[in-house]
TrEMBL record:
<feature type="transmembrane region" description="Helical">
    <location>
        <begin position="414"/>
        <end position="437"/>
    </location>
</feature>
<dbReference type="InterPro" id="IPR025405">
    <property type="entry name" value="DUF4131"/>
</dbReference>
<dbReference type="GO" id="GO:0005886">
    <property type="term" value="C:plasma membrane"/>
</dbReference>
<keyword id="KW-0812">Transmembrane</keyword>
<feature type="transmembrane region" description="Helical">
    <location>
        <begin position="443"/>
        <end position="472"/>
    </location>
</feature>
<dbReference type="InterPro" id="IPR004477">
    <property type="entry name" value="ComEC_N"/>
</dbReference>
<feature type="transmembrane region" description="Helical">
    <location>
        <begin position="484"/>
        <end position="504"/>
    </location>
</feature>
<protein>
    <submittedName>
        <fullName>ComEC family competence protein</fullName>
    </submittedName>
</protein>
<feature type="transmembrane region" description="Helical">
    <location>
        <begin position="510"/>
        <end position="531"/>
    </location>
</feature>
<feature type="transmembrane region" description="Helical">
    <location>
        <begin position="27"/>
        <end position="44"/>
    </location>
</feature>
<feature type="transmembrane region" description="Helical">
    <location>
        <begin position="308"/>
        <end position="326"/>
    </location>
</feature>
<keyword id="KW-1003">Cell membrane</keyword>
<feature type="domain" description="DUF4131">
    <location>
        <begin position="54"/>
        <end position="206"/>
    </location>
</feature>
<keyword id="KW-1133">Transmembrane helix</keyword>
<feature type="transmembrane region" description="Helical">
    <location>
        <begin position="75"/>
        <end position="94"/>
    </location>
</feature>
<feature type="transmembrane region" description="Helical">
    <location>
        <begin position="377"/>
        <end position="393"/>
    </location>
</feature>
<keyword id="KW-0472">Membrane</keyword>
Length: 711
């Protein structure tokens, strides 16, 4: 009986697998498999061997050949899927080896630096520092093998003259330090992002002088000068906060936007308007495409003889390329540019411009060229929104014509447009909400209301007016002034909407950061629902619901210690919220910890809770969740005591960040200076009678973007 039962089970599995494969769209799953390989690469604890690219290439070739020669459809699918995953690992390996910038492993109190300025953000307005990205020629005291390719430097407003422009060569004296590690295990790794921008260190400039003017090498000087000229023109034509937003929309420089405006936009769910991405590129391309095609249509001899649609597509390509150069070619802008090029190319060859295959092709190109983009919130959120919108668009447009609503008159068209804005905002908001919760610990509850009011203003007034104003500057300055002024009025309206919505009760909801597996489950389930056809797509509900349940029950660690032991958070047994001893020089880590725990309280409340529990006592013995005892040998004031043998029996967890702990037999967990120097920021979670320990060093592994401890 067992043999027939196994045969029936085998046949059932084969039928189910065949049905899943039959209802899949293979090409749309290709970027998903490539992304899986990239994720595997970045999850490795250490960098693959130097020979890994050769071995991976051979493995991919063998799998592709096997898929080509086999006559069995199932085996072909398995071979191609494995080849795509290995290609993702290969792409990540090659990209890292191609960047290959050294990373500072220690701070340098005073270094002489020379190099060429690649980018400048901010204008030093209001006493704020400017940020400069420097292509390094030399750093005094460092050899070629330890000198980063680029540095990101903060330049005081008083030390930044008008001649500090991209393309100039400078000489500076600066204090340098390595890129910062994550503030907690699993938190965002800013150092990794900087590494893939070829930035191996940060610094604060003390003295800076320009030693050579813009040389225009490699086109950097041209685009840099153009960006600077455009930014200055916008600041003059559009004063105040609106001018700072206009500069951000065109050049990508957000340094001129007041912090309160940025916070209002974020709380109202309008922060996406500041990042030059698909919306902005689409509006610029659409405005140029529509203007050129409409102009040709108004001239009957040309309209009858010329392919107006294709000419407009070429003009839109030129506009997109110019916008890419002026905006500084950030990663989100490059992503939007590639997507626009694919859509316009489809127009040129008479293919459907908007389809899931176009989205898949764009994702393949971006992930192949910039594998690290997979880990960035911008990539995840933009493609989540696009995939959801295109999937629903394809199903909507596939309906018979008789079922589609008809529009009669201008009023109906306006209503249809507003319904479209509301629908796309709702779909995009739902698609990106899990990523916003995971990366930013917040969800803009009233984002739909804000987008419904602000997006039409940006789409119909702000972006067209900015494009027209800059183009008219070439020969009709009066019209340019009016167009830019109109753009300023529109931006003022958007800022007013953001401030009004942000002031409403419940505009923003702080949520606890879920575990990584929960986000992966939500993504996997959503992809199955959106990319599969037929009944098999409903299988995606299982991981989707499991992931959402984990989102709803997420909670942060019970104990957190930063990498120098200056900030400590303990979840008190009685209250369930963090009490915190704060580093008074920097509260960034503490703020991130509170938000990641879904805690909207001000830091002062958490600090007061610590003082109420400990007072000035050193050592301080606390009781965390589960009744676990913690002894802290440092006070909120910074006063500490030497870890002696008498302290070792105080509690199951000893935190002595200022001194090495001297215990003949260590307690269950001892976090002292030696531990923090080796492991970095540490998180402990109580699990029944056990304590689970995570550290930044273990989470990051031994990778090229992790500074190596100096010997």
């Amino acid at each position: 009986m067992a043999v027939p039962r196994r045969r029936r089970l085998r046949r059932g599995v084969k039928r189910a697998a065949g049905r899943i494969a039959q209802q899949a769209q293979p090409f749309t799953w290709a970027p998903v498999l490539l992304a899986l390989g990239i994720a595997v690469y970045f999850a490795l604890p250490a960098e693959p061997a130097q020979a890994a690219p050769v071995l991976l290439t051979l493995a991919v070739a063998v799998l592709a050949a096997a898929a080509w020669r086999t006559g069995r459809a199932g085996f072909r699918i398995v071979c191609l899927a494995a080849a795509m995953v290995l290609t993702g690992v290969l792409a990540g390996t090659l990209r890292t080896q191609g960047v290959g910038t050294p990373v500072l492993d220690r701070g340098i109190g005073s270094a002489e630096v020379t190099g060429r300025v690649l980018a400048v953000s901010g204008k030093g307005d209001g006493g704020r520092d400017m940020t400069v990205v420097l292509q390094v020629d030399r750093i005094g005291g460092l050899g070629p093998g330890t000198t980063p390719r680029r540095l990101r430097l903060a330049v005081p407003a008083r030390g930044a003259g008008p001649d500090l422009l991209p393309g100039v060569r400078v000489e500076a004296t600066a204090r340098l330090w390595p890129p910062p590690p994550p503030v907690a295990p699993g938190a965002y790794d800013f150092g990794r992002r900087l590494f893939f921008e070829s930035i191996g260190g940060l610094g604060q400039v003390r003295r800076l002088s320009v030693i050579a003017p813009v040389d225009g090498a490699g086109g950097v000087g041209f685009w840099a000068s153009l960006r600077a000229a455009v930014a200055e023109r916008l600041r003059v034509a559009i004063p105040g906060s609106a001018g700072g937003v206009a500069v951000a929309l065109v050049t990508g420089d957000r340094g001129g936007i007041p912090p309160e405006n940025t916070e209002h936009l974020r709380a109202a769910g309008l922060a996406h308007l500041l990042a030059i991405s698909g919306l902005h590129m689409g509006l610029v391309v659409g405005a140029v495409f529509g203007a050129v095609r409409g102009t040709i249509a108004l001239i009957p001899p040309l309209a009858l003889r010329l392919p107006a649609k294709k000419i407009a597509a070429v003009a839109a390509m030129v506009a997109a390329t110019a916008y890419l150069g002026i905006s500084g070619a950030s990663v989100p802008t490059v992503r939007a540019f590639l997507m626009a090029m694919l859509v316009l190319s489809a127009v040129l060859i008479d293919r459907r411009a908007i389809s899931m295959r176009t989205v898949a092709l764009a994702a393949l190109v971006i992930l192949a060229l910039q594998p690290e983009a997979l880990l960035e919130a911008g990539f995840q959120m933009s493609f989540a929104a696009v995939v959801a919108l295109v999937a629903i668009y394809e199903r909507w447009s596939a309906r018979p014509r008789g079922e589609r609503p008809r529009q009669h008159g201008a009023l109906h068209r306006v209503a249809a447009y507003m319904a479209g804005v509301a629908g796309t905002s709702l779909i995009a908001g739902l698609a990106t909400a899990p990523f916003a919760a995971f990366h930013f610990d917040r969800v803009a509850v009233l984002g739909l209301l804000a987008n419904l009011a602000a997006v039409p203003v940006v789409a119909l007034l702000v972006m067209p007016a900015l494009v027209a104003g800059l183009l008219l500057e070439l020969g009709w300055s009066a019209a340019s002034e009016f167009a830019l002024a109109a753009a300023g009025w529109g931006i003022d309206a958007v800022l007013a909407v953001a401030a009004a919505v942000a002031a409403l009760p419940g505009a923003e909801f702080i949520v606890a950061r879920p575990p990584l597996w929960a986000l992966i489950a939500v993504v996997a389930g959503s992809l199955v629902l959106l990319l599969q056809r037929g009944g098999t797509r409903w299988m995606g509900l299982v991981p989707l619901c499991a992931g959402l349940a984990a989102f709803a029950t997420a909670r942060g660690p019970d104990i957190l210690v930063d990498d120098i032991g200056a900030t400590i958070a303990v979840r008190l047994h009685e209250e369930g919220d963090y009490a915190m001893a704060l580093n008074r020089r920097s509260t960034f880590a503490a703020e991130r910890w509170l938000r990641a725990d879904g805690d909207p309280r001000p830091l002062e409340v958490a600090r007061t809770a610590w003082e109420a529990a400990c007072g000035t006592a050193v050592p301080c013995v606390l009781s965390s969740r589960g009744g676990i005892g913690i002894a802290v040998l440092t006070a909120a004031s910074g006063r500490s005591v030497r870890g002696e043998e008498a302290h070792c029996a105080l509690a199951a967890i000893i935190i002595a960040p200022r001194e090495g702990l001297r215990c003949p037999e260590l307690p269950g967990h001892a976090i002292d200076r030696t531990w923090l120097e080796r492991e970095g920021a540490t998180a402990l979670t109580v699990q029944g009678e056990r304590v689970h320990v995570e550290t930044v060093a273990r989470a990051r592994g031994n990778r090229p973007w992790v500074p190596q401890s100096p010997q």
